[in-house]
Amino acid sequence: MNIILLNSSRGQTRSLPVTWPNLIILSMFLFFMPVALGVGSYFLSAWLNPPILSSGIVDQWQESLDQQQQGVRDFTNDAEGQLAALTVKMAQMQARLLRLDALGEHISELAKLSKGEFDFSESPAVGGPESFDLGEAYEKPDFLAALGKLGEELEQKEVQLEVLGSLIANRKLKKDVFLAGRPVEWGWMSSRYGRRSDPFTGRLAWHKGVDFAGKENSSVVAVAAGVVTWSGDHHGYGEMVEINHGGGYVTRYGHNKENLVQVGEIVHKGHVIAKMGSTGRSTGPHVHFEVYKNGRAENPAKYINRASR
User: Fold this and answer.
1) b (16+ CB within 10 A) / e for 254-283
2) What are 180's strand-pairing partners?
């Protein structure tokens, strides 16, 4: 098989024998020629018309966008942290305000202020005539600085109220431990302090206390604040309560039908500590009342008859 080539200018012909190598070369030429032309056209077009956005510009924009997003995340985290700190600060200040209210109520009770005279549960009343004098220009305070200043003021008020409360409580405590008054709410003195005839033997004996007779089950009360050091049966006293008032003072309340306090219990002035009875060495319902100072019995009459502070 031959391929005939015509030369139109000279009118000559030429034939080429078709062999397998020639056929393969021709096929490869016909296949790769369009591919080469397409690739060449693409690069020529890219060289003549460069793209508007190069890869370098896109990378820069992406990097800038990443930085902005990171900045937004940092700002959000910072804002959330500040909000959490402010929330904690506000909670602490609210707790302080509640504590101040409680201290104020406590001091009002200690000072025996009448209701409504100083009410901590309500905001203080304020007012005044309208003024058109604006004074100096108002400047918006820094929020955190204002909170810090308010916290300092609250702390100072807490200290002041605590000191005032301690002073009033100490005065009240001194008043409560001052021995004065009768050990009964109702009754009469049936036997005095000193020499007397023993009700069981008829012999002269020393009576270390005073007796207050009354109705069975009537109240026996503490004549001062203190700590209970005995509550139970005691030889000769029957059911007895002993109270240590500090300062070397101790009082005893004997022949009770029932003791209402326990050892270690703190009692206040006027506290009902027992029910009157006739237990132990007794002839009838009464309370045997004794006062000791530094271990020595004293005449209770001088404490019963003196005025309360």
Assistant:
1) bbbbebbbeeeeebebebebbbbbbbbebe
2) none
